Amino acid sequence: MYIRIDLNDFREAFNRMGRGDNFTYAGLGELFEYLEELEHCEEQTELDVIGLCCDFEEGTAQEIASNYNVDIEGMDDEAARDEVVDMLDAEGFLVGETDTTIVYRQF
Q1: Is the pLDDT assigned to residue 5 strictly greater than 90?
Q2: What global pTM score does this model have?
């Protein structure tokens, strides 16, 4: 049996599971929109908060560049962010962007 949830239910599920700190408020919004788009192309999915936290992450361009060896040395913040977003998008891992962070599928 499935129930349809909205963005507020989605955010609350992360809080109930003690995973509210894994993503920012805006980051959860980006992840929800991404999953909603996927669901239009595929069958309904089960909300697995722990699984989502294992598969997806949110970070700054500098954090992501450091974790995935993206060379952003000497770039200003905007150029570094563009470089990281372009890399994630080219690899098919970009979920979305907030004002300060990037949400992506871990690889």
Answers
A1: yes
A2: 0.92
